[in-house]
Amino acid sequence: MYRKYDTSLAAQCSLRRNQTEIDRHGRREDLLMSRREIKSEDNNSVDYSESHITNVLRGLVNCNGEKFNEYLFEFKTMCENVRSTCSNVDMFYEKVQNSLTVKRLLQVLTTADTEMTKNVIISVFINLTFSQACLKQMLDNQLEYIVLPLLSTPHQTNVLWLYANLSGENAETRDSVYSATKETLLQMYQTDCLKASSVELIRLISNFCRFKPHISFEGFDGFFKILMDSLRVSNDNAKCVLSAFLNLVDSDEAVHRYESNILSVIVYGINNSDLELFDIIVNFIGDIVYRTDNYIDTFIQRELMERMITALQVGDENVSKDVLWCLSNIVASNLTSVHNKIEQTGIVKLLIEMLLCNTTANKLRYEVAWCFVNILSILDEEEITRVVQHQNFFEAMKAVTFIQIKRKDEKSSLMEFFLQSVRKILTIGNIHSVNGYNIYASSIEENKLSDIIFSFIDDCELSLDVSEEAREITEKYFCDN
Fold it and tell me: What keywords are assigned to this protein (predicted)?
């Protein structure tokens, strides 16, 4: 995670999500961005020639009646298989785009007298959404409005499926679909013509939440209600819903507007045993906590920290990384409830074990270090005297300095707050010294941590502020020994 260099711990924590967004973007986008396609039941591999494709497209445009239907079914099979069997997929989509196929199919869709023909055409459109050019061509020809009446027919599922694919391309396509469908979708839901259990509907609404600039909050409350209604239908629905919330609620205004809903969602996620779903919740909480401390007490009352520790002990690296990012923001809040939970849960002991474990990956160790340092930063004198008594505490502090960090600003940021924690511990050691003997300074020397701090003074990979802090600590506590 990228921590922007800052002299304020609170500011540093609030800006830490930049790299987190990049790291988790892939996993979240896999859930929302993935388009659904209709697979052919024919498993025979066929490589369509250019002349064959041209012939089918020409037949679709020029033929009628039974001959048109023959070409339509053949084209449907092509669309279902082309991405896995055709050696030149781009050529296929380019030929479709340069023909009048899309316009012709839209014309037939509005006049077709059989449900079978309509169903086949919708299936074709679903598979054509894999081509950005074809997708744009469909929207340029008002596809989103032409298929709207079919929401009230047996084709509802496929139409929702098509809308979800269209809206998942970019902000422009999302806006086109949203403008065309919002009133109809909300009205149908209110009259029980749409069900919250429909995964196609939830994916569509989830895609409405994607991309920036976000759609206006005005008029979206009804869709938020649908998401809430679908949350407990299944874990698959919940993951999609939570990912939508994660995209939508990324501003103070959004958090305030949907406060009660957000808390309900988080409580549900905290108590769910599904690890992937919990990971999404952790990211959701992390986004909220970096904006405000207002909800931390509620999260803690719901045993969030205990759930986080359990997740860390499971050992999934991606989940652990997100948990530690979120946890380090929580512990930086300096609330009484946080202080109490740090001691009750034994989180420091677990962090020490993770720092000293040889099998802990470096990128995960980096997250552990930030969580460890943030905890030390908020503990008071009495709490520090208890924490340093943990077995291997000073070995763990030393381990923080061995973490490999490529970027100078990232390394300097961590080492600055680390040295502030060292100074804090040494200051408390002076307060409790006997005949001038600082037991904490002695422990730091015994573990050779003092030598490492001394080396920071001339380390060109660290900032001048870190070097100066290291020099002051060395001169005050270790030069006379």
Answer: Protein transport, Transport
